[in-house]
């Protein structure tokens, strides 16, 4: 188990290594990997990042594609009121909507199925 002190030391050393490393010298690569692994393991345990919510991802895609709720409803072959209910948490998505989100909005299946 990596302690907070080890994590801080690893971050300090990483900063030092990044200043020393250049494209022609590979002598510090092994230490860089070791230090990075320490930081990664500590952060995975203490600062886990979960999947974004489906609602947030749908809203992001709508923004990117310049869609309104009624446009999304047409794209997913449903009603605008159903989309509104889903956003408010009053309804779950259907299987056909899940397929549409995956195929038409390119939303990762892990996010849809969470």
List its traits:
114 residues, mainly alpha, 434 Repressor (Amino-terminal Domain), 2 domains
Overall description:
The protein is mainly alpha-helical. It folds into two domains: 4-46, no CATH class; 54-113, 434 Repressor (Amino-terminal Domain) (Orthogonal Bundle), CATH 1.10.260. 68% of the residues lie in helices and 0% in strands. The protein has seven helices and no strands. The protein has helices at residues 4-20, 29-46, 54-65, 69-75, 80-87, 95-104, 109-113. Helix 1 (4-20) packs antiparallel against helix 2 and helix 4 (69-75) crosses helix 5. The longest helix has 18 residues, at 29-46. The protein is elongated. The mean pLDDT is 92.
What's the helical proportion of residues?
55-70%
Query: What structural category do the secondary elements indicate?
Result: mainly alpha
Radius of gyration: 22 Å
CATH homologous superfamily label of the largest domain: lambda repressor-like DNA-binding domains
Low-confidence stretches: none
- Roughly how many Å apart are the termini? 29 Å
Strand proportion, as a percent range, falls in: under 5%
Average of the residue pLDDT scores: 92
CATH domain topology of the largest domain: 434 Repressor (Amino-terminal Domain)
The SSE order reads: HHHHHHH
CATH first level of the largest domain: Mainly Alpha
| Count of discrete structural domains | 2
Q: From the 3D coordinates, which CATH architecture of the largest domain would you assign?
A: Orthogonal Bundle
